[in-house]
Specification:
This protein has 468 residues and is α/β, with parallel strands linked by helices. The chain is 25% helix and 25% strand. The protein folds into three domains: 36 residues; 202 residues, 3-Layer(aba) Sandwich (Rossmann fold); 176 residues, Ribosomal Protein S5, domain 2 (2-Layer Sandwich), CATH 3.30.230. It is built from eleven helices and 21 strands. The strands form four sheets. Strands 6-5-7-8-4-9-10-11-12 form a nine-stranded mixed β-sheet. A seven-stranded mixed β-sheet has the order 15-16-14-13-17-20-21. It has a three-stranded antiparallel β-sheet with strand order 2-1-3, with no helix packed on it. The C terminus is likely disordered.
C-alpha cells in the first residue's frame, strides 16, 4: 500500500527540501517553502520494470508540415513567427491588468470567425464577466465556446471528447488544480502537473494551446521555472500603466525568431494593433530640435524601430550625483558616462543625469550606446542634435564606435519616416561594407571624440585622452 509523505517545495524556483527552513538554499528566497503532500509509489514486484522499445525514424518526413493557424491579429502572428502551430503550447505572461485576457479573447474570436474551432476556458472570471468584456470589444456574436473550470480532469475530459478544437485558451494556469495532489492551486506541484496534463493533451489531439500565466513582482512568470521549458513559446506582455503602448515580446520560440515584438495601443475599446510602431513612438516629438534628445534606430527581433532617447543634465546637490534611467540598462549608462569622461574629456562628476526612452519601450541592444551618448552630450552642451538624423552604434571602453548588425534595415526605416541623415559607425575600419540607402546621408564616426566635436562646440574642446 502506498504511504503518504510530505516535502517542502520552494514556490519561487521549485527546489525541494526535506524540512522547512526560512530561506531556500537553491535561489536564496525567504519564506517561500511550502509543505506539499506527495504520494509515494509502491515498489514494483519482481525487479525493475522493463520498458518497451521505442521506434526510431529519420529526420526527413514524408508529410508536409501543416500550415500555421493565423489568429487574425497581425502583431500577434508576427511574434508567433507567422501564426499558431498545431499541437504547440504557448505561455503568455504579464502584469495584472496589462491586457492578456483581452488579447487572447480577441484572438479566439478572430479564429472562430474564420471558421476554426476556438475554446476559451476561464478559471478566474465568471461567464458573465467574460461576456461583458466580449461586448466591450464588439465580439459578442463570435462563435467562441466559453467555459469556466479549474479542475484539470474536467477540462481534459471536455477537450478529449468529440471533435477537437483548433485553438484553446486557458486563463490562467495558476488557477487550475489536479485532484490527485493535495497542494493548493498555484503551488509549484499543481502548476507543473496541470501544465503537463494540458500540454500532453494538446500534442495528442493536435490543437494549439495558449496558457495565460501570472507574473511575480520581479516580472517573471509565477510558478516553477520548468514551466517555461515545457512549452514551445513564451511571450511576455509588457507596458507601463501610465503609457498606452503595450509590447508583446517573444523570449522563447521553437517555431520562429526570439526577441520579436508586437506593438499594441490601449484605447477605450480595448487593444488596437500598431502596424508602424516607429511613427507612433515619434508621434509626440516636437518639430523643433531640443537639446538632450536623439532618435535611435534600433532592432527588435527582425523589425526596425525608431524611438527617441531623452537626456537631462542638471547641477547636482552636494554629495553623490544622481543617475536615473528608464527603459535602458543603468549599468550601460554608467559605462557610457565613464567613456565620455575618460576618452572625450567631458565632465559629468557634478551633474545629475537622467535618461529616458520615450514611449515606454525597453531597449536591450548595445547599439543604443551612440544614441544615448548623443543625447547626453547634447544636453550637457545645450546644443540640439540634428533633428533629421538617426543615431546607432556600440561604444567600446576605449571610446571606439563599433559597427552593429542590420545597418541597412535601420537606415531604410529612417528613410521611410523622412529622416535625411544618420550618425553611424564606420564599418570600413573593421573590414565591413558601408550601408547605403537612397535619401540618407550617413556620417560615419569612429570614436566618441568625433561625436563630441560634432555636438559640443559651445561647451569645451574635447581631448583625445587614451585614444588608441
Amino acid at each position: 500500500m502506498a504511504r503518504t509523505t510530505s516535502k517542502f517545495v520552494c514556490q519561487a524556483c521549485g527546489a525541494e527540501a526535506p524540512k522547512w527552513t526560512g530561506r531556500c538554499e537553491a535561489c536564496g528566497a525567504w519564506n517561500t517553502l511550502a509543505e506539499e503532500a506527495i504520494e509515494a509509489k509502491p515498489k514494483a514486484l519482481g525487479g525493475a520494470h522493463k520498458g518497451r522499445a521505442v521506434p526510431f525514424v529519420g529526420l526527413r518526413g514524408e508529410r508536409a508540415p501543416a500550415p500555421r493557424l493565423a489568429t487574425g491579429i497581425a502583431e500577434l502572428d508576427r511574434v508567433l513567427g507567422g501564426g499558431l502551430v498545431a499541437g504547440s503550447a504557448v505561455l503568455v505572461g504579464g502584469d495584472p491588468g496589462i491586457g492578456k485576457s483581452t488579447l487572447l479573447l480577441l484572438a479566439a474570436a478572430r479564429v472562430a470567425a474564420n471558421g476554426h474551432g476556438a475554446v476559451y476556458i476561464s478559471g478566474e472570471e465568471a461567464i458573465d464577466q467574460v461576456r461583458l468584456r466580449a461586448e466591450r470589444l464588439g465580439i459578442a456574436d463570435s462563435p467562441v465556446k466559453l467555459a469556466v473550470a479549474t479542475q484539470v480532469g474536467d477540462i481534459a475530459a471536455s477537450l478529449a471528447s468529440g471533435d477537437a478544437p483548433e485553438f484553446v485558451v486557458v486563463d490562467s494556469i495558476q488557477t487550475l488544480f489536479v485532484e490527485t495532489l493535495e497542494s493548493a492551486p498555484g503551488t509549484v506541484a499543481q502548476v507543473r502537473a496541470a501544465a503537463h496534463e494540458l500540454i500532453r493533451l494538446a500534442k495528442r489531439r493536435g490543437f494549439a494551446l495558449v496558457l495565460i500565466g501570472h507574473v511575480t513582482k520581479e516580472g517573471l512568470i509565477a510558478g516553477p521555472r520548468v514551466l517555461e521549458h515545457m512549452v514551445d513559446t513564451v511571450l511576455y506582455f509588457e507596458g507601463e500603466r501610465t503609457h498606452r503602448f503595450r509590447i508583446l515580446r517573444a523570449v522563447k520560440n521553437r517555431f520562429g525568431p526570439a526577441d520579436e515584438i508586437g506593438v499594441f495601443a490601449m484605447g477605450e475599446e480595448g487593444l488596437a494593433e500598431v502596424p508602424n510602431p516607429s511613427a507612433l513612438f515619434l508621434s509626440e516629438r516636437g518639430p523643433d530640435a531640443q537639446p538632450g534628445a536623439s532618435v535611435f534606430a534600433g532592432m527588435e527581433g527582425t523589425r526596425p524601430v525608431l524611438v527617441e532617447i531623452q537626456s537631462l543634465i542638471a547641477p547636482a546637490q552636494p554629495g553623490t550625483p544622481r543617475r536615473a534611467v528608464v527603459g535602458w540598462d543603468s549599468g550601460r549608462l554608467a559605462m557610457v558616462l565613464a567613456v565620455l569622461e575618460a576618452r572625450a574629456g567631458l565632465s559629468f562628476a557634478n551633474q545629475d543625469v537622467y535618461l529616458n526612452v520615450a514611449g515606454g519601450l525597453r531597449i536591450n541592444e548595445p547599439a543604443a550606446d551612440l544614441a544615448a551618448a548623443c543625447a547626453l552630450i547634447s544636453s550637457l552642451a545645450g546644443v540640439p542634435a540634428p533633428a533629421d538624423a538617426v543615431v546607432f552604434g556600440e561604444i567600446g571602453l576605449s571610446g571606439e564606435i563599433r559597427p552593429v548588425a542590420h545597418a541597412e534595415a535601420r537606415l531604410k526605416e529612417a528613410a521611410k519616416l523622412g529622416f535625411k541623415r544618420a550618425l553611424a559607425p564606420a564599418p570600413h575600419r573593421t573590414g565591413g561594407k558601408p550601408a547605403r540607402v537612397s535619401g540618407i546621408d550617413v556620417r560615419e564616426l569612429g570614436h566618441v571624440t568625433e561625436l563630441a566635436a560634432l555636438l559640443a562646440r559651445t561647451h569645451s574642446t574635447p581631448r583625445r585622452s587614451g585614444h588608441a
